[in-house]
Structure formats: structure tokens, C-alpha cells
Amino acid sequence: MIHIGQYIEAAIEWLTDHFAPFFDVLNIGIGGFISGFQEILFAVPFYITISLFVLLAWFKSGKGTSIFTLLGLLLIYGMGFWKETMETLALVLSSSFIALLLGIPLGIWTANNNRCHKIMRPILDFMQTMPAFVYLIPAVLFFGLGTVPGAFATIIFAMPPVVRLTGLGILQVPKSVTEAARSFGATRRQQLFKVQLPLALPTILTGINQTIMMSLSMVVIAAMISAGGLGEVVLKGITQMKIGLGFEGGIGVVILAIILDRITQGIAQKKK
């Protein structure tokens, strides 16, 4: 029999033993970033947060979405899950931000380097098809329990769409446009930032939308390692067989997902 698992275990143990200081620094940095985000969201009164989301939905996605945002967020507040919703929002936006920070440059690199594209393609396939639960194991070993391992697992799971769609958007820019820019003396940097990225922006924004949605899909899974938020409410409903509690937590996740999806889609449509 071929025991691949024992080699992976040995590799993770080696990383844990030899890079413990690095993981500690990463834990403090990411943990502080998420905690700071949470503190900001907790400090803002709920009615101001709801008003900002309603206005954003109105300008970016229209009247129907703004009405749904108002009613949905008021329902979450009325159910008593406002704190958990803000925890989830902080975790999702923080994880998405880090995933985009890593994913967009990788997508640009894969579009401009054929060898990098060939190497990254199977890695991205692996990241997307691996069951999300598996990411929790190294995350807990590296960072312990809490929001940081949840964010770590979420970043790995949610990063592939933005890498793929950033690369696709740049590759879809007409060659004639880039050649015209080059003929006028544009440097590679100018071609990237003034020609390729602006024209690829709608596709990149679709990738951002998909990354945020995949981050939200990790909410309940991340709750299994004490990441908190609405996922913890759903998990309590499952473990304690409280159907109503689990259903209420699920409704909160759905409302948040629809709001973020419609707003990001609206931004992408306006850019087109």
C-alpha cells in the first residue's frame, strides 16, 4: 500500500517544528487585522451600518436590492444575530482582502508567463477540488483554534477564482490594443496598468465576486475550529439538534451572501 498521508504528516510536522516563529508572527498579524476589523464594525451603531449598506446597494445595484438589504439586515438584527453577523462579515472581508492581495498578482503573472500558467493550473485545480474540511487540519496545527486558522483555510479555498479570472481577463484584452500601446512607446508597466488591467477589470471584478462568495461558503466549516460568527450559530443548531436555531443562522448567512453578491455584481456591471 502507498501511504501518502504519512509523508504529508511528516512534512506538516517539519514545518510546524522549524517555522513556528514565522507562524506565530503570521498568527499575530492576521489575528490583529481581523480583530481590528471586528472592533470597527462593533463600534459603528447598527442603524448606521444598515444605512451604509442600503445606500451602497441603491447606487450599485438598484432599488430592489436596497429594499432587500434594508429588510434583510433588520431581520438579522431582530433575530438577535447582529454581533455574529459582524463577526462573519469581518472574517469574510478580511479573508477575501488577503486572497485578492495574493490572487490578483498571481493572475497577472500567469497571464504574462506561460510557464507560470502551466505550473499554477494544476495547483489551482487541486485547491478548488480538495474538500474544504481538509484545510482545517494544517490550519489548526499551524495556528491553533480561533479566527486565524479559519481565515487561513478560507484564503486557500477562495483564492483560485480571482487568480483564474484575472489571468483570463488580461488574456482577453485584444492584442491589437496592446500592440498599439507598445507602438506609442508604452513600457510594460504602463501597458499593464493603463491598458490591460482597465480593460480586464469587469472580468477581475467577477473573480472578486466569486472569491467573496466562496469565503462565505466556508463560514460554517470554519466555525468547527472556533472561528465564531453565524457559522457557530448553525453549528450549535446541528450539534444540539435545535432546528430553529440552525435555520435562523442559515437565513443570516443567506441574507449576507445575497447582499454581498448583488453589490459586487452591480459594481462589475457598471464597469462593463
TrEMBL record:
Q: Which domain of life is it from?
A: Bacteria
Which Gene Ontology biological process is one annotated for this entry?
glycine betaine transport
> Which key words tag this protein in UniProt?
Cell membrane, Membrane, Transmembrane, Transmembrane helix, Transport
Q: Where in the cell is it found?
A: Cell membrane
SUPFAM superfamilies referenced in this protein's UniProt entry, alphabetically: MetI-like (SSF161098)
Instruction: State the InterPro entries in the record.
Output: MetI-like (IPR000515), MetI-like_sf (IPR035906)
Q: Which GO terms describe its molecular function?
A: amine transmembrane transporter activity; carnitine transmembrane transporter activity
Please give an example of a GO cellular component term from this record: ATP-binding cassette (ABC) transporter complex
The ABC transmembrane type-1 domain is annotated at: 85-264
Protein topology in the membrane: Multi-pass membrane protein
Q: Which residues cross the membrane?
A: 40-59, 66-82, 88-111, 132-159, 212-231, 243-260
**One of the Pfam families matching this protein, by short name:** BPD_transp_1
Q: Give the family this protein belongs to, as stated in its UniProt record.
A: Belongs to the binding-protein-dependent transport system permease family.
Q: What is the official name of this protein in its record?
A: Glycine betaine ABC transport system, permease protein OpuAB
